[in-house]
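Tokens for chain A. Residues wanted.
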């Protein structure tokens, strides 16, 4: 069944169905993104209840990042080959069952296994959902709006995870951070097949590039594993350099295989489009900074300022409000001025927010220390996420929508891992010299200063590589 046939019930007079389907897909993606950050605030409670060791506790976060990051490209290609609705439902079902297992976990080992399974569920559901949106919204302006909303929700989910985790952990239990996913997953499985039929491109690979899939999966897992270990061992340790080096070697082998394969997992033509390449490269810097900011600020508020989990979550509430407002304000502006100008402004605001974090008196009153920086950062991220999401799928043929979605979501996962590893390492290494509180504060602000540089680099990537697109052509 082609995409034209697949979306017959979702076009024409069924406009409401398409937007309803977007709502269902977005809710699941929102939950998936939340689960990237939702455990950060809850980790001390998880460790106390299940008796984790310090090293074992890291796998509650790392297990999810490794499996999701390693399998997203394969998940995106499977969506093109086996059907987007099917793969979304399979991934959502697995994500829901794994969330239930995490929420009811009696032991540390059970929780870690559930987190690995959640990552596999994300790898199947997330790229399928994104490619399905691109397939059912054929009008460029509508597609740009839908992808913009999708990108905004992705960024908001990362922040909401911290807020929700603090509220649930303090008022109920850390287990509800996982159990809350289950009813939404069930609702999505019931509703989505009623709103859209199966969607596959008319021209798609007849078979899976298994060797390419194995190489790119092993490469992503190895690089992310090495990066995640940097905060404990340092960047020059063989336990870090070895996996990263092996991952890069596997990536080189993957490129060689893709150049000779008749039906490659990732056709190299994907990287000939400057807009997509610029969007994905810039995403590394913006999404890496977002992941790092909220991990470091959460640690700082709890470990240095003595905030409770609930107070930490509430401290992020103004950011969430400003983030949503920035999306609503900038999307109409982006439609007029185009994604390039929008993204340059977004990275400028992001760099300014990081500079405020690097220079503010974070130990002083919240209203004069943290709050102004959070509001400026919200403007930058709120403007940038929707534009990056839309341009990452620019000018893709229908047969490669799943591929493009897989690449974008893989970049997000890699950015999360690298952002956390790089900035946490900088904070710990630079803050190791003096008294605990002052040294830690100095280390975090040093890391935020490096964040200014990386945001400026992201903006420079947009300036140098992204062409000025016609209005409405971002998607």
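Reply:
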């Amino acid at each position: 069944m082609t995409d034209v046939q697949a979306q017959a019930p979702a076009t024409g007079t069924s406009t409401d169905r398409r937007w309803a389907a977007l709502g269902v897909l977005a809710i699941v993606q929102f939950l998936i993104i939340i689960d990237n950050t939702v455990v950060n605030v809850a980790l001390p409670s998880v460790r106390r209840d299940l008796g984790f060791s310090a090293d074992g506790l890291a796998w509650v976060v790392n297990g999810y990042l490794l499996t999701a990051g390693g399998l997203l490209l394969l998940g995106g290609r499977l969506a093109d080959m086996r059907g987007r609705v099917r793969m979304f439902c399979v991934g959502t079902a697995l994500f829901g069952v794994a969330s239930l297992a995490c929420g009811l976990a009696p032991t540390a080992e059970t929780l870690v296994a559930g987190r690995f399974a959640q990552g596999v569920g994300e790898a199947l559901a997330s790229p399928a959902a994104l490619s399905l949106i691109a397939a059912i919204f054929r009008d460029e302006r509508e597609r740009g709006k839908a992808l913009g909303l999708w990108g905004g929700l992705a960024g908001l989910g990362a922040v909401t995870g911290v807020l929700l985790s603090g509220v649930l952990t303090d008022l109920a239990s850390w287990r509800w951070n996982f159990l809350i996913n289950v009813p939404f997953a069930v609702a999505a499985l019931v509703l989505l097949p009623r709103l859209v039929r199966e969607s596959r491109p008319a021209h798609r690979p007849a078979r899976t590039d298994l060797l390419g899939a194995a190489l790119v999966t092993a490469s992503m897992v190895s690089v992310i594993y090495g990066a995640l270990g940097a905060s404990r061992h340092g960047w020059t340790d063989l336990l870090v350099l070895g996996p990263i080096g092996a991952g890069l070697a596997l990536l080189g082998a993957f490129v060689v295989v893709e150049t000779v394969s008749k039906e490659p997992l990732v056709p190299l033509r994907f990287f000939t489009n400057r807009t997509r390449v610029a969007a994905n490269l810039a995403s590394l810097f913006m999404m890496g900074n977002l992941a790092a900011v909220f991990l470091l600020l959460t640690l700082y508020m709890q470990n240095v300022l003595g905030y409770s989990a609930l107070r930490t979550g509430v401290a992020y509430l103004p950011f969430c409000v400003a983030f949503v407002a920035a999306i609503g304000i900038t999307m109409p502006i982006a439609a007029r001025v185009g994604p390039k100008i929008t993204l340059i402004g977004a990275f400028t605001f992001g760099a300014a927010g990081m500079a405020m974090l690097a220079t503010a008196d974070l130990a002083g009153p919240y209203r004069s220390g943290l709050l102004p920086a959070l509001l400026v950062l919200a403007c930058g991220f709120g403007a940038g996420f929707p534009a990056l999401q839309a341009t990452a799928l620019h000018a893709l043929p229908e047969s490669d929508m799943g591929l493009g979605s897989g690449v974008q979501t893989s970049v997000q996962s890699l950015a999360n891992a690298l952002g956390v590893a790089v900035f946490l390492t900088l904070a710990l290494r630079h803050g190791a010299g003096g008294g605990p509180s002052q040294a830690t504060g100095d280390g975090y602000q040093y890391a935020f200063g490096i964040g200014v540089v990386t945001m400026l680099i992201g903006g420079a990537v947009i300036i140098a590589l992204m062409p000025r697109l016609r209005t409405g052509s971002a998607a």
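Confidence is low (pLDDT under 50) at residues 1-13, 433-439, 471-475. Residues 209-264 form one domain.
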